[in-house]
Amino acid sequence: MLFDDQFIQYFASFAFHATERPIALLILPGGERHLFVPRLEREHAQTFAQAERVVDYPEYPGDVHPMQRLAVHLKALGLDRGRIGVDHDGYPAVMGYSGPPVSEVLPDATVLRVSPGIDEQMALKSPAELALIRESVRWGDHAHRLLQKYTEIGASETDVEARATREATAAMVAAIGEQRRTPNRWLSGAVALYRGQIGAASALPHAMTSGVRFQAGDTLVTGAGAGVGGYLSELERTMFMGEPTAEQRTFFAHMLALQDIAFEALKPGATCASVDVAVQAYIDREGLQAYWRHHVGHGLEQRIHEAPFLDRGDARVLRPGMVLSVEPGLYVPGLGGFRHSDTILITDSGMEILTFYPRQLDDLIIG
């Protein structure tokens, strides 16, 4: 019994906006899937979901709570006893939702958390999944090239992002078709943006778009990707408006060195922790700890962040088929942020960098 919208998309190809109205996917013994949705989502689910049955309820909270209706459905199937695997013990508190947990509405069942096993399954990509991620990389690259092309002194962040994203998405749809685009919660086309990381604000790793105009001397941190068949990739670059200063060049070189260290450490059999440890050894050696804000990277697939994490606290072993972002960053108050992100694949013999946008400084100077 799954409530997480990304798990539901993974197992039933149903992308939706999670609201206070519970949605659940039941995977029965033998693999039959029942999608439990509010009435307003019934036609949506019947049209797009890969599920053998769609069951709906009138509304939340309703005269009978949706979780009680879900329990009645399970009892009718004779599945209200024994073991039930869940990602959450009930629908999570989304947009004001409240309600009883699974363990309360099905008191005769043994409720077990299965999220770690699902995360492990999702981390290992099939050839079909990898093909979609590679296509995402292609269109993320195209969107980023347009972003860099249209960025100029005096231009608005909002206008440049919108133009690059609109043109890249139109080109992608023309090339691969609307159906393969398959939106998910994060991306529904080809996207390139700055997310507010412009000038001094680029030193904020998760800044927000603010609509500022580009100025000479700005440090820029970008982001690009595309949603293809529900799958994502990640591309980020550090760029400069005009000739970078000696200080900007120094921190750019450190950032590039950090990413190269991470690339060398990524191989099957290594732990996620060992990659972060290798990167932070350089940071300690060079006295850069004051500018370090986050771990080296994370898994990618249908979610923009997912397990495993390239963090010294994650002991999981890297295995062939894993796709991860590699994005060690340095953030210098008053100067800017310095972060490249590339999407990589763990292979039988090492790793493959799937993104192919230029990484070197000379290719990332605008004007």
UniProtKB/TrEMBL annotation:
It comes from the Bacteria. CDD domains: APP_MetAP. Residues 2-115 form the Creatinase N-terminal domain. The keyword Cell cycle does not apply. InterPro entries: Creatin/AminoP/Spt16_N (IPR029149), Creatinase/aminopeptidase-like (IPR036005), Creatinase_N (IPR000587), Pept_M24 (IPR000994), Peptidase_M24B (IPR050659). Keywords: Aminopeptidase, Hydrolase, Protease. It holds the Pfam family Peptidase_M24. GO terms for molecular function: aminopeptidase activity. Residues 132-348 form the Peptidase M24 domain. This is Xaa-Pro aminopeptidase. It comes from Deinococcus metalli.
